[in-house]
Specification:
Elements (H helix, E strand, L loop, with lengths): L1 H21 L20 H37 L4 H36 L15 H4 L40 H7 L11 H14 L2 E4 L4 H16 L11 H15 L19 E5 L6 H9 L2 E3 L8 E4 L7
Antiparallel strand pairs: 1-2, 2-4, 3-4
Helix pairs in contact: 1-3, 2-3, 7-8
Length: 325
C-alpha cells in the first residue's frame, strides 16, 4: 500500500513540475524590485514583495531542499540494503519529501484557481477569450501606488549624481622593473656591473690625479628613462609650478625624486633621454673643472676622453686599445 502511495505521489510531482515552471518557478529574486528601492514603499509594493517571497520560498523547497532530501533517502537505501529499519527510514524521508512538494504545489494551484475565479479579468482584446495568468500575476498592485506619494516639498529619495573625478593631466612616472635600475634607485648609484674591466681602474687613476668623484658607471636605459621622465614631468610639463589640486599628490612624489637625483637647488638642467652608459665604456665624474687643460691631459693619461656632451658635461669615454696598468 505504501509503495502505491509513493508511486502516486511521485507521478503527481512529475505532473506538477510543468505547472510550477509556468508559475514563474524557480524564482531567485530580487525580492524588492530595483526600480522601487529609492522611494517609500506603498501598498502596491507590499503586494509585490509578498508575491516574490512566496515564489522564493517554493523555489527553495523544490530546487534545493527536495533534491537534497531525495538524495539523502537514496543514500540510506544504498547503505542499508538489508536493514529493515534503515530502509523504512529512507522510505519515510522520501515519502515525506514528495508529499511536501505535492502539498506546496497543490496549495499553489488551489490559490491559482481561486484567484482566477475571483478576478475573472476581461479579455484584453474584444471578441477574444479571457487570458488568465498565474495567481502571482493576478494578485497585483490593483492600481495602488508602488511608492507613497509625498506631499509638499518632500520628494522621493533620488540617488545623487555620480561624482566626476578629474585626473591630473600630467602622467605618472613609469614603474622601474629592471633589476640594476632598481638597485641604483635604491641608492647604489655607481654600478660597475657590465662595464669594461679597464674602466674602473682608469677612472680611479684619473680621480687620483685631479680629484672629483665617479657619479655613474654602468647605467641601464630603464634608469636613464627614469631620470628623463623626472625632468620631463617637473620641467617640460610644468609640474613644478602646477597649482591644480588633483596634481598635488603627483607633484609631491616627483618633487621628492627631483631632490633625490638632482638636489633641491636644481634648475632643470639638461637630461638625455638615451643612456650612453649601456656599452660599459662610459663614466660620469663630478667635482672637477672638465674644461681645464690639465684635467684633459690627466684624462688622456688615464685612457679617458672628455665627451663634452651638451646634455651631459660630466661624461668620459674609455679609449680603445688603451690600458691604465
Amino acid at each position: 500500500m505504501r509503495s502505491r502511495t509513493l508511486l502516486f505521489v511521485s507521478v503527481a510531482v512529475l505532473v506538477s513540475f510543468p505547472m510550477a515552471a509556468s508559475a514563474a518557478i524557480p524564482f531567485f529574486g530580487p525580492i524588492i524590485p530595483q526600480s522601487t528601492n529609492q522611494c517609500a514603499a506603498g501598498w502596491g509594493l507590499i503586494m509585490v514583495v509578498v508575491n516574490n517571497i512566496i515564489s522564493f520560498g517554493i523555489t527553495l523547497a523544490i530546487v534545493f531542499v527536495a533534491p537534497l532530501m531525495i538524495a539523502y533517502a537514496g543514500f540510506l537505501f544504498v547503505v542499508n540494503p538489508v536493514s529493515a529499519g534503515g530502509k523504512a527510514k529512507a522510505k519515510s524521508i522520501l515519502l515525506n519529501t514528495v508529499v511536501g512538494i505535492v502539498v506546496a504545489l497543490a496549495g499553489w494551484m488551489i490559490v491559482d484557481a481561486v484567484m482566477a475565479v475571483l478576478y475573472n479579468r476581461a479579455a484584453t482584446v474584444p471578441g477574444t477569450t479571457t487570458v488568465l495568468g498565474t495567481w502571482s500575476q493576478l494578485i497585483t498592485t490593483g492600481g495602488a501606488d508602488i511608492c507613497i506619494p509625498l506631499a509638499g516639498s518632500l520628494r522621493p529619495a533620488v540617488a545623487p549624481p555620480p561624482t566626476l573625478v578629474t585626473a591630473c593631466p600630467t602622467p605618472s612616472l613609469s614603474a622601474i622593473t629592471d633589476p640594476l635600475a632598481s638597485q641604483m634607485e635604491a641608492g647604489d648609484a655607481v654600478v660597475w656591473t657590465n662595464t669594461d674591466p679597464r674602466l674602473q681602474s682608469c677612472a680611479n687613476q684619473f680621480i687620483g690625479r685631479v680629484g672629483g668623484r665617479v657619479t655613474s658607471a654602468y647605467r641601464p636605459q630603464a634608469y636613464q628613462t627614469h631620470l628623463w621622465e623626472i625632468r620631463d614631468r617637473w620641467c617640460t610639463q610644468g609640474l613644478k609650478t602646477n597649482a591644480n589640486a588633483v596634481c598635488q599628490s603627483l607633484k609631491n612624489s616627483v618633487s621628492t625624486e627631483v631632490t633625490k637625483h638632482f638636489g633641491s637647488t636644481w634648475s632643470c638642467g639638461a637630461v638625455g633621454s638615451t643612456s650612453r652608459h649601456t656599452a660599459g665604456t662610459g663614466v660620469d665624474i663630478g667635482g672637477i673643472n672638465h674644461a681645464s687643460v690639465s684635467v684633459q691631459e690627466a684624462a688622456a693619461a688615464s685612457c679617458l676622453d672628455w665627451a663634452n656632451y651638451a646634455d651631459d658635461p660630466y661624461h668620459y669615454n674609455l679609449r680603445a686599445s688603451c690600458s691604465c696598468q
